[in-house]
Amino acid sequence: MKKKKNIKYIFVVGGIMSGIGKGISASSIATILTHYGYRVNNMKIDPYLNVDAGNMNPTEHGEVFVLSSGLETDQDMGNYERFLNRDLSHHDYITSGMVYQTVIERERSLKYNGKCVEAIPHVVDEIRRRIEDSALRLDNDVQVVEIGGTLGDYQNLLFLETARQMHLDMPESVTFVLVSYLPFPKSIGEVKTRPTQNAVRMLNSYGINPSVVIARSEGLIDQKRREKIARACNVPKGNIIPAPDVKSIYDVPINFDKAKIASVLIKELSLQKRKTTGVLKRWKQISRNIQNNKKNPVRIAIVGKYFETGSYMLSDSYVSVIEAVRFSCACSNTRPEISWLSAKKFENRTAAKHLEDLQNYDGVIIPGGFGSRGVPGKLAVIRHAREYGIPVLGICYGMQLMVVEYMRNVCGKRSANSLEIDPKTRHDVITIMEDQHEKLADGQYGGSMRLGAYTAHIVKETLLHSLYGVDKVDERHRHRYEVNDAYVDEFEENGLHVSARSRGGLVEAVELSEETHPFFVGTQYHPEFTARPFFPNPVFTGFIRAALNKRVV
Ligand code: GLN
């Protein structure tokens, strides 16, 4: 084992309820500490038994974020990468499923020397090994560990127990941040602190006391409430960090910095003071650009199917796409107005009217997806956008459907389809990748797609080439199907060009020339996963520019 450097650990836990910004808090803490000169790493622990996030339904769990290594993870990992401005590794993500799998495999191969294998110590030791492994990989000073779920969940108890033990062994190097919510019931007219007090009590019952409480609330909390929480929760008043709702998540590091969270953590962890790096200055600028309110917005429609849950529409399934749009808008001096259009709308009796309404948008994105639901609607949208010159960006499934639509409506192959939708189609213009047959026949669905970063070689003199300005680019993938090479000549002769291929020859991108269409680009890869606040993805930037031009006309 590597020699242990004195790394500091900040465990971020959530009280009261989920969805209050624990991930953004963890990302913001990391950003701020980077500003104060420390090398920081983020990691996420998800308590579910899935080995990774790959097989989870995005409507229930949100986006599956793919790391460059190919690991399918939780959407919070995307936030960490965007806030830290670097790639994270697969060591930085843990699920209970992964932990148990390792422990059980070890037991099966007699690595526990005949001992009875138990949650404590064996599972806890494996969790700790993984946390330390992640922290020690790079030359980090601070490791920010977000424990998924909410206090009181049965599933994350062993993670909290691991954190407690780490604190016991290294009291000067381990600290806890509780992100809690303070409700403001309108009928009472006052912010209530009691749920947060109860959350701290629960944490205390696990042998842990937070050193910082991030008080999430609708508005700013007053001194009186801060004092109340401090007193009841055994935390100094200065360690209660107010965190009111914000217009943009990119304001959170700035707000936390104003509340002096860095000096609190530096003191709690006995960190040596360092020279600041200026990260927050750039951050302020980017946050201002992202919220650009001066100009008219660019109107973007995302046509998908993973946002309806009951009577609510959630955008969580496409977070990285939304953020990628935001960054490209920020650098193009505009801001997006994003609309969610359910693909279903374009399939029923009123489809024609909805297609006509597409003129109200400056650009359309067809994001990734799986299965046949919503496909006819997406095909109708692609056709309309192609015929009426609306800028359209197809990502992964979106790109595959662009090819299907083109083969059907331009090349005249009416039965052209993806094998994913119609396994018996006469024209499988989108076919299954060679190595996938066996995997599917064996029922191997977990982590078995073409995943992670692969190099796309860009064809010179294409729109894509002019966007990237380089001959090759590493982008992230997540798919089982691919464009069938047998049809490439035919659609190319009819005007749809292949603009990038992998080293093995797989079609990575297609486009119509700019003379034919202002922006008709599809990528087999997901450009949204590499878009960062300071480094927008060129494909999105090209799309936004084309959308802006459409509006001006
Ligand atoms: N369902 C398609 C495939 O597996 C596309 C996947 C995606 O959009 N991520 O190839």
What layout of secondary structure does this protein have?
Layout: E1 8-14, H1 22-35, E2 40-46, H2 58-61, E3 65-66, E4 72-73, H3 75-84, E5 93-95, H4 96-108, H5 119-137, E6 142-147, H6 157-169, E7 174-182, H7 194-205, E8 212-217, H8 223-233, E9 240-244, H9 252-258, H10 261-268, H11 279-290, E10 298-304, E11 308-309, E12 312-313, H12 319-331, E13 336-342, H13 351-357, E14 363-366, H14 375-387, E15 392-395, H15 397-409, E16 416-418, E17 427-432, H16 436-441, E18 450-458, H17 463-468, E19 472-479, E20 481-483, H18 488-493, E21 496-502, E22 507-512, E23 520-523, H19 538-552
Parallel strand pairs: 1-6, 1-7, 2-5, 2-6, 7-8, 8-9, 10-13, 10-14, 14-15, 15-23, 16-17
Antiparallel strand pairs: 3-4, 11-12, 17-20, 18-19, 18-21, 21-22, 22-23
Helix pairs in contact: 1-3, 1-9, 4-5, 5-6, 12-19, 14-15
The site of glutamine has 10 residues, from strand 19.
